[in-house]
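Course assignment 3, question 2. Fill in each field.
Student: A.L.
Task: Predict the tertiary structure for the chain below.
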Amino acid sequence: AVARGLRLTFAERDHLLLLAGHQPPAHPGSSIHVSPGLMRILDSLTDSPAQVMGPLGETLAQNATALALFGDETRHTGLSRSAVYRWFTDPNSRSLYPPAEQESQGRVQVSLLRAGTARLGSTATESMVRQLRKQSTDFARLWDAVEIGVRYSEEKRFQHPEVGGPTLYCQMAVDPDQLQTLLVFTATPGTDSAAKLRMLTVIGSYDIASR
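Answer field:
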């Protein structure tokens, strides 16, 4: 009732329940199998980067243009499957983003991990949180700030080694039953970013770790 009265988001509601010593409503766990509905949408997208993400930032599937933009993010194993974990432990994971935007990106990553903890339960993330606190003072600082519901900006600027710095817009489609999200990146027609996005469709995938 308090959550409804305050118009809290699901992430904020779940966090409130944890603070009060209550278990949030059960949510299904993350699956490596992509929701059929999201997969059909992903398969239909050829000109725009698109990928399906799990609740802890795991990349479950990518189309060819997303491979060209981000590299193969499905190849990671262990804790490194999570984009949150890589952001704070692998400097290469930050190289696609301008330095001026990396602080805000880090805040979003931590907020997503906190939301995932509330939805999946602390046992699903305690090992990751423990390791990140040991390895990254930036993570420890942001985790202790307890920011809830910080979201990505729709407008995202990249610095790509092949096509330069396109500005793209991120739209999301969510399958709440599977806790999976389809991210689609588009450019304003007729802009320099749209031309750079077209270039991505022909350059193919690259290895982000080689840059």
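Instructor remarks: The chain has a mean pLDDT of 87. The chain has nine helices and five strands.
Grade: pending
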